[in-house]
Amino acid sequence: MATALHAAPPALPPCDYRPRRYTGPSRSEVLALRRRYAHPSLFAFYREPLLVVEGHMQYLFDETGRRYLDLFAGIATVACGHSHPTVVARVQDQVATLQHASSIYLHPNLALLAARVAAKFPPGLDVTYFVNSGSEANDLAVLMARLFTGNADIIALRNGYHGGSPTAMTFTGISTWKFPVPQSTPVQHAVCPDPYRSPFGGTPEAIASQSAEDIRDLIRRATPGRIAAFIAEPVQGVGGVTYGAPNYLREAYAIVREHGGLCIADEVQTGFARTGEHFWGFEHFGVVPDVVTMAKGIGNGMPLAAVTTRREIADALAQRLHFNTFGGNPVATAAGLAVLDVIEQDGLQENAHAVGGRLKAGLADLMNRHRLIGDVRGIGLMLGIELVRDRVTKEPATAETLDVLERLRELGVLVGKGGLDSNVLRIKPPLCLTADDADFAVEAIDYALSRVAVP
Ligand SMILES: Cc1ncc(COP(=O)(O)O)c(C=O)c1O
Description:
The chain starts with 26 loop residues before the first helix and ends in a 5-residue tail after the last helix. The model has no long low-confidence stretch (mean pLDDT 97). The protein is globular. It is an alpha/beta fold. The longest helix has 19 residues, at 204-222. The chain is 35% helix and 15% strand. Pyridoxal-5'-phosphate (PLP) is lined by residues 75, 133-135, 138, 161-163, 233, 237-238, 266, 268-269, 295.
């Protein structure tokens, strides 16, 4: 498995777009201001944080005009592409016409987008509440589940991420994102069904079944026996692109429903065509959730998120007043409507499937050349490369992952990282990524890995 060092670094595919000349404050000024006045819990990637001042489709530009292939898309958010002309035009038009009035008055965008979202779901999932972030969507989903079922307890998954609000944080099952404060919600975290680091043995399907049975055990031992909901990402994003075999969600949902619970699919990362073959992540696993939460891709970068459910579940929230000032804002929903049009017109779902498959195959091939790669996984354009120091012990290669990130940045490629030990490279680009970009990304990752010292 010796790795040949390439002679020259791979070059980005050509692009005609020329960024404007940047005239704002310098990178060091921005850094100093941010360090002095922004909240210290904001963190930035890279030893020398990157100043990003312009975007064009799958590319970002720094203040010098240098171009980067963006394989992280504002954390799986910019689905259509940076400053996609259709989204920009529709948002600009809406800002110039009416920016805000709130949902106490009628506006076509909220109603139209709710209907368009409903059309993307199986029959019955047709009532939507718009909010501004994924955390809010998850909070609201669980509130509705509790009101509807009359039960309090929630089952979430270890290694899941559901947001930073106090309630959503309790569902998150990754310690690095949790704070030592009392949890407001009774939550139990079941075993993550991903086979790569499962405590269970056997085939991926056997691991999935044992992981689903863990939910039954948890309900029996740690709850009153009836639960409000099970919340899970079909593919865990922040956790490092982890998911169970196809039988997992089917078996898990059946157990949850036996105990009175609703099944909530957190589609914040997996929704809006990212996983390619299907529009929603849950569709890969042959299940239909009772509640679906979405954010990120729905707005292509505008603060827009939503919860879709069945009418009788939604009615449970209508028993009291509930209001969200910006929820369904005309500008955010203009972006949402444009996103749905662009996904169709630009064939982004098909592209995510085709280019994602090509990229995954290229990355899987790299396993033969780099023993640092322990696992390549993912669906469509939601891919993960887990780096380990030893394929048998699976010791996380955390420092090496950081090194790869830095080297890729030098090559003009931006990727994310994730997993409890930050040893998974996360690839979630705009869905307009081309085959040439994908081939270049594989070459760049190969080149970067060839230069990382392996213990
Ligand atoms: C799966 C998932 N759910 C919820 C959230 C929270 O979304 P937000 O940051 O918009 O609150 C995230 C954010 O990364 C996420 O990945």
